[in-house]
């Protein structure tokens, strides 16, 4: 990761194509290796994996005048790139280049997630952003739920991020039992999640991963005042996973003056599917309003 961080700050012109191809291939190979290790007949008999169709990272190359603007799109906790693919296709339909990153431990099997830390997730974001920088001139970052939190964290540490958007970024969770994860871990290894879309989200996730999520929330919460780029927050008033007042807390803590919080009167957590074209439109408007002239 030290080499990736250096490359993100270096002049890549002389080696742009080589670095770009290597980064793209590395993420594909990493997915294949994780899938092969954790999606086995033994694990499949216990907990269902996610299909490669939803689990792989994905690049949607841009076109037209927006093609040089890149968007790093980040899925949520215990989910997969497939969770945010509807939004990715909408953004790409307007010409933007979109890279949908796969957070390590996700998109394969819950047993994979059991082996990962939140730093592994953030390293996935850093690699994805480094890759996006090799193929675009301007970069935005955004995500769903934990993916939104990771996008905000990235914006603190990478000054080249042009703007950030987050849907249902977590600070407080609706299930108070989650905060007892360290105790529950001694009793059982996994928790049933009953996701809205079992094709893109694990139907159970490891208690250890809940601990990692809580640790990440604690870390990124402390850095919100250092977010200095334009920021869009979108939150459902009836969110069933993240307490809606999380959005107001983030908004109040953000260091940037260029910030917007949009409320949605729906009782859903994942609001980036095709069921929410208004959310897609809000994000498109934000991107168009903050894209510099190249």
UniProtKB/TrEMBL annotation:
Pfam family, one: Hydrolase_4
Serine aminopeptidase S33 domain sequence ranges: 69-189, 202-274
InterPro entries, per the entry: AB_hydrolase_fold, Hydrolase_4, MAG_DAG_Lipase
Family matches, as SUPFAM superfamilies: alpha/beta-Hydrolases
Domain of life from the UniProt record: Bacteria
Entries under PANTHER family matching the protein: PHOSPHOLIPASE-RELATED (PTHR11614)
Official protein name in the record: Serine aminopeptidase S33 domain-containing protein
